[in-house]
Amino acid sequence: MRNQNNNNCDLATGRSNVKGKIVNHKANKLVTSLAQWVTRRSTVKKLSFVLAAIALVAGTLCVTGFGTRYYRLGGAWVGGHPGFTWSAIQAPMDPLGQTCCDRPIVKFYDAQFAGLLAAFGADSLSDAIGEAHMISPDTARWTLISYAQATPHLPGDLLQNMAIVMFSGTWKFTSDNTVVLNYTVNVYLPSADADGDGFPDAGAQPVLTIPGVVDNAKRVPIL
């Protein structure tokens, strides 16, 4: 009887040891898997960081070039030509300054430009708005839209758009702080905007085109 009891105890102890080994094996396997997962995740993070850094350097080289000077859009500018003066703020739309939104405001115009507005029944020009993007290391292409307007003078009068004025051309850097603009002005009647979205409809023809306008502009300096 005693031998049988001893055999039963030995059998139970053996089963317990086997279960313990199985549990330990599973635990070790789980720890190993977790360690591998953490290592892989850390590696992926490091790889992502390295790839992002490479992309940033590559993007910078695309702008700075290998010895070529690439200019950046942005900043505050004042420009124009005799009889016409404007100021503008350019807000970059990408980290490298290759695109921007532009908000010029006319500050002064002479009698000749006033006569042009009057020919359309207007007495003022709205602020313009548009975008520009670099097409070469030193030159950007841009388009602006504004409206020739009739100002209300009496109670009950409404502000009226008498014409749609589109400006389009190039912005060429001659230094970090100076540029030359060459552009064309196209004027459309309000009827050219049949769908009322503020733009001339596709296929609409301007009633007046003024090509070959040249402005010079300077960046506003920090004194």
How is this structure best described in words?
The chain has 223 residues and is an alpha+beta fold. The protein has two domains: 1-68; 75-219, Lipocalin (Beta Barrel), CATH 2.40.128. 32% of the residues lie in helices and 38% in strands. It has two helices and nine strands; from the N terminus they run αβββαββββββ. It has helices spanning 2-64, 111-118, and strands spanning 75-81, 84-92, 99-109, 124-125, 129-134, 139-150, 160-173, 178-188, 208-219. An eight-stranded antiparallel beta barrel has the order 1-2-3-5-6-7-8-9. A hairpin with a 4-residue loop joins strand 7 (160-173) and strand 8. The model is unreliable at 4-16 (pLDDT under 50).
Secondary structure elements and pairings:
Blueprint: H1 2-64, E1 75-81, E2 84-92, E3 99-109, H2 111-118, E4 124-125, E5 129-134, E6 139-150, E7 160-173, E8 178-188, E9 208-219
Antiparallel strand pairs: 1-2, 1-9, 2-3, 3-5, 4-6, 5-6, 6-7, 7-8, 8-9
Q: Report the CATH topology name of the largest domain.
A: Lipocalin
- The structural domain count equals 2
CATH architecture of the largest domain: Beta Barrel
Stretches with pLDDT under 50, minimum 5 residues: 4-16
- How do the helices and strands follow one another from N- to C-terminus? HEEEHEEEEEE
